[in-house]
């Protein structure tokens, strides 16, 4: 290697060493600020002239930045629920009298008072005047219905009498007809009961059927006449 090349290599090595040892801070630093990380403008001499000074009482206290409830309002005075006690030196009036005789008044009021509980007499229905009979109101309704039927029969009587060849039955005549029908039914029923249980011949079957038909017809007539007040029979 030539000498010129060696000289150039030494110069570059010294330049690299100088670059590695150079401080990162730019410019000279006073001795009073050595080791200080943050430089404050009024850290040594305080605020400058003309600046508004901060009161020493206005400093950040513990829990000052936390939300706080408003101060409670003054409670309203409560009304007195009980009367005040009587003073010890308060003396009641003595010797007053109303002049009323409470003993006599109490006796008179007790004698005139109505008893709170009165024994109720047990109702004995067996002693009623209509016990075991039809009640009076039902008898009255029955009479009214009978009068209405009689009035309707009297109103229809002239028209019925005008028709020729028609027999009108009412009252006792109608009851007599019902009585005869019931007697006839009774005699037919006795004959029906005397029939033999076994009807093995045509004559026995025919006799049984005739009696049953007559009994059914009489029963129907009796039911119809029992509900009617006037019966018209054609000639």
Summarize the structure.
With 235 residues, the protein is mainly α.
- Spatial shape: elongated
Strand residue percentage: under 5%
> Helices and strands: which structural class?
mainly alpha
Radius of gyration: 69 Å
Number of helices: 5
Low-confidence region ranges: none
Q: What can be said about the biggest beta sheet? A: 2 strands, antiparallel
Tell me the helix content: 40-55%
User: Which series of helices and strands comes N to C?
Assistant: HHHEHHE
Tell how many strands the DSSP assignment holds: 2
The average pLDDT is 79
The neighbouring-strand order within the major sheet is 1-2
Tell me the span between the first and last alpha carbons: 180 Å
Biased composition (Basic and acidic residues): 61-71, 141-152
Coiled coil: 201-228
Pfam family, one: Enkurin
Biased composition (Polar residues): 1-15
How would you characterize this protein structure?
Helix 4 runs antiparallel to helix 5 (202-227). This protein is mostly helical and 235 residues long. The protein has helices spanning 3-21, 102-112, 136-162, 172-193, 202-227, and strands spanning 166-170, 230-234. Among the domains are: 126-162; 166-234. It contains 5 helices and 2 strands. Strands 1-2 form a two-stranded antiparallel sheet. It is elongated and about 165 Å long. The model has no long low-confidence stretch (mean pLDDT 79). The termini are far apart.
Main attributes of the structure:
cytoplasm, mainly alpha, two-stranded antiparallel ribbon, 45% helix, coiled coil, Enkurin_dom, calmodulin binding
């Amino acid at each position: 290697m030539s000498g010129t090349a060696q000289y150039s290599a030494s110069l570059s090595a010294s330049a690299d060493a100088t670059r590695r040892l150079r401080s990162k801070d730019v410019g000279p630093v006073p001795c009073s600020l050595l080791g200080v990380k943050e430089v404050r403008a009024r850290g040594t001499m305080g605020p400058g002239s003309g600046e508004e000074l901060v009161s020493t009482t206005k400093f950040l206290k513990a829990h000052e930045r936390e939300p706080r409830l408003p101060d409670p309002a003054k409670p309203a005075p409560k009304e007195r629920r009980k009367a005040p006690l009587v003073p010890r030196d308060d003396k009641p009036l003595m010797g007053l009298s109303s002049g009323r005789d409470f003993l006599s008044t109490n006796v008179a009021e007790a004698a005139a008072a109505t008893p709170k509980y009165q024994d109720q007499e047990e109702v004995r229905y067996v002693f009623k005047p209509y016990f075991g009979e039809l009640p009076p109101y039902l008898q009255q309704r029955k009479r009214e219905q009978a009068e209405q039927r009689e009035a309707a029969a009297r109103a229809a009587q002239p028209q019925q009498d005008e028709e020729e060849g028609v027999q009108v039955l009412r009252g006792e005549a109608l009851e007599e007809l019902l009585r005869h029908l019931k007697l006839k039914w009774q005699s037919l029923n006795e004959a029906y009961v005397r029939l033999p249980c076994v009807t093995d011949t045509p004559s026995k079957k025919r006799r049984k059927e005739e009696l049953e038909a007559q009994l059914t017809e009489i029963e129907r007539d009796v039911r119809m006449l029992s509900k009617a007040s006037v019966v018209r029979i054609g000639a």
